[in-house]
Known about the structure:
This protein is of the alpha/beta class. The protein has one domain: Rossmann fold (3-Layer(aba) Sandwich), CATH 3.40.50. Helix 1 links the parallel strand 3 and strand 4. The mean pLDDT is 98.
Amino acid sequence: MLQLKNQIYTGSNHRKSVYDLNIPDNFNNKIIVFIHGYKGFKDWGAWQLMEAAFVSKGFGFCKFNMSHNGGTVQQPIDFPDLQAFSENRYSYEVNDAKTIITLIHKKYPDASIILMGHSRGGGIALLCGTHPAVHSVITLAGISSIEKRFSDKKMLEQWKADGVRYETNSRTGQEMPLKYIQYEDFIVHQKDLNIEQACEKIEKFCLHFHGTDDSAVSIQEGIEIASRTKGPLYVLGNSNHTFETAHPWKEAKMSEALSFIVEKSITFLS
């Protein structure tokens, strides 16, 4: 078994971040690359239990922190570097994901890479889905559009005037800054950040999960993704945006919703 923890990679704008790689002895030549979402990180909540469940069935598993998610190499959990967080942009996240895909593909050129993304990470996975090394894509409460994130015109006007806006992290209590450059970068790279078009271009196997009680990303977005990729959508009743898990997760087992996702994903990928 190969177990690598907090290995360093160089991401967007030459900023260093970390990744984990777990390859079991009974490796089935399939590696899941997990992409966290907004205000997320690789060690959030029950993701490590999800990783262990896949690895126990022979899958390799890689999870990583985005280069500008607010973490650091020294402190990869939570958000000690709000300056880096403020500089983040969607194009950076696509580049980070592609860097990790390339890294894994070089290490295991014959392996099938499966992208699995949560929330915004689901959208990033779809944008990377046409990468030649990618075999299939799985989204967990994935977003269907980046443009929708900028639909509030009054907010955009105020954001432009101020140059920065803040969002409160209810768990940490931090006021997390977002520079207007994020929107400007989206406009510059809009063609490459079009999830709707990316879904229609993916000629890979796709699988989607979404909770009925998701208050962060509407289940309608999951329906839109599934419709465009022609991949099946599992709707989880009474399940929220994080599939009934939280951070920190102190339980020994995953939630029933997350266990269901793992079970169905393994069947789908087998």
